[in-house]
Design goal:
Helix content is about 55%, strand content about 0%. By secondary structure, it is mostly helical.
């Protein structure tokens, strides 16, 4: 097991959030484009797995509720993909919910980095 550098992890999440924000913005911008297919990025957990870091609960219920693919609203599941009269798959309500998730995740990421930065500064003093 390798040590986890919190600042590197936060930086990776911020990059992922930026990519997801760009995908959501593109979906919203093309909401009235005929034939456009909504896109989304892969879940952050899969990005972490490729880098060798995985989220593991040390106790039952440690992470609270489990996050499932359905909660991300990915468009590759036929049950969540709706073809609209314009023949595109952008559902504005889903895209706005994703945009809110991204905003909250950015805020949490920033707050965590700020708290750990403050803690590191206190330990140096």
């Amino acid at each position: 097991m390798q040590p986890v550098n919190l600042f590197h992890l936060a930086s990776r999440q911020a990059e992922w959030l930026s990519a997801r924000q760009a995908a959501v913005a593109g979906n919203i911008a093309n909401a009235n484009t005929g034939g456009y297919r909504a896109v989304d990025v892969e879940p952050f957990e899969k990005v972490l797995e490729r880098t060798g870091v995985s989220l593991t609960a040390t106790q039952e219920g440690h992470f609270g509720t489990r996050v499932t693919e359905a909660s991300f609203g990915h468009q590759d599941d036929d049950r969540t993909t709706a073809i609209l009269p314009s023949e595109n798959t952008v559902v504005m309500e889903q895209e706005l919910m994703k945009a809110g998730e991204v905003g909250r995740a950015f805020e949490m990421n920033t707050a965590i980095v700020k708290a750990f930065h403050r803690m590191m500064l206190m330990s140096v003093k």
